[in-house]
Amino acid sequence: MEGTAARARVYVVGVALGALYCVHALPAVTAPWWAVALLAALYAGGERLSGTFYPVLLAAAFLLPPPAAALVALPGALLSPVVQRPHAIHRIWRAAQLAVAVWVASRVHWTLGGRDAVVAPDFPYVLVPAGAAVIAFCLVLTVLDGGILALAERVPVRLAWRGLFVRSLAPIAVHGLAGLMMAVLWRSPYGPVAALLVLLPMCVSWWAFAQYHREQAAHQATIRALVQAVDIKDEYTRGHSERVGQASMMIARELGMDEGRVEVLRFAGILHDVGKLGVPTRLLRKDGPLTPEERRVIELHPEYGHEMVRGISFLGEARAAVLHHHERLDGSGYPYGLVGSQIPESARVVAVADAFDAMTSTRSYRRARPVATALEELERCAGSQFDPRMVTALVRALSRHGWRPAVTADEERPPRPRRPVSSRPEAHR
Asked: Where are the alpha helices (DSSP H) in 152-280?
């Protein structure tokens, strides 16, 4: 939400006001405040350890009146570490979203007689109000998350909510079972101490999950280092990889891909030129036209790149895009001269994003073309060089969101006279 749009800020304020409404009746609530404080402290500690600690929140929804349950979420969410900027807005958003979701879950649970079911559990009937509360909790989070995706991240409205509920329900249902076990033990003769034992296996599993995320973060740090190395080596395309990743993501979203594939396509765009690390620097920075032998060396970079990333398992189809993003529909591309649908879809996406950014960025041999001119050139070559679906998707995405072409070379350095190797829009190093 960095550089959050005004309408997204209004949305966050609206959700925050909703959270205030959820807790406004606290003075009239008769609840054991020591239990509220203990659950709030547990959630705050879990939030710092794992980032999400829904079992405690759902246990609060099963044990406490709605306003008190909503209060449990606020301290932990407001004090939790935040990476993205602006920090204050992210914290307020997280706290408000969770408070509203917990309030709704508690209201549903109590309305269906869940309070009595927890005190004298009668399985499997105790699962009915608890299950309804978990579904309500997940639904509220999904609705609010989709709204912020549409407003702050500019995801198309028709795609903002797609798959969110289905992806969230299973893990939240597991959290709900743990929360229900906590609540039942809390109300049993064994008391709150026994309820806290439920958290021990959950903490172990979260630790393992955190280790997995740290491994992914290490992979991503490696990717960033590789891209920075390419940018340093090929000074005239600095920033190109990041922008190709952004354009690839826009195309993927316009095509209706789920967010998992969108992220993979973003990585594909970022890494598409990583094989340039295997190309001699003198060729990447050569001022004059390339000889046929030099051109053949340059054209090895997709294969070099594929070898570099083939061991990064989470990249999935991004590896095929790294290898095949210079293929052309008519078979005149490289490295294998694939034709039409033989070219992986991910590679066809990155090819369009790559050519678009190459044309709209200043290079050593020419100034940047206007966006409209670049799109006209892509449309002219659609069907022979580029997949028309990808070109159309980029045109639609840019018509909605626009594009700020960045200059990749030093603005103060005048373009050096150099004859482009080819008049086709993809010809760049």
From this structure: 157-160, 164-187, 191-197, 199-233, 240-254, 259-271
How far, CA to CA in Å, does 195 sit from each of 55, 63, 200? 11, 12, 10
Report residue 399 as tokens.
């018509």
* Residue 423 within any structural domain of the chain: no
Task: Express each pLDDT in 242-276 by its tens digit.
Answer: 899 999 999 999 999 988 899 899 999 999 999 98
What does DSSP assign to residue 313?
Answer: G
Task: Classify burial at 152, counting beta carbons within 10 Å of its beta carbon; exposed 0-12, middle 13-18, buried 19 or more.
Answer: buried
- Maximum C-alpha span of the chain: 85
The parent domain of residue 31 ranges over 6-197
Distance (Å, whole) CA 316 – CA 29:
52
* 49: CB partners within 8 A, 6+ apart: 203, 206, 207, 210
Q: Are residues 395 and 353 in the same domain?
A: yes
Residue 296: CATH number of its domain: 1.10.3210.10
**Number of structural domains in the chain:** 2
Do 322 and 394 lie in a common domain? Answer: yes
- The whole-angstrom separation of Cα 389 and Cα 386 is 9
- Please indicate, yes or no, whether residues 318 and 354 belong to a single structural domain of this protein: yes
CA atoms within 13 A of residue 28's CA, in its CB half-sphere: 5
Q: What is the mean pLDDT of the chain?
A: 84
Of 367, 353, 369, nearest to 414 (Cα)? 367
The residue ranking higher by pLDDT, 404 or 429, is 404
Cα 55 to Cα 47, 52, 275, 301, 385: the distances in Å are: 11, 9, 45, 49, 53
Least confident of 41-45, 272-276, 421-425: 421-425
The tokens for 415 are: 């373009």
Q: Which residue has the higher pLDDT, 293 or 213?
A: 293
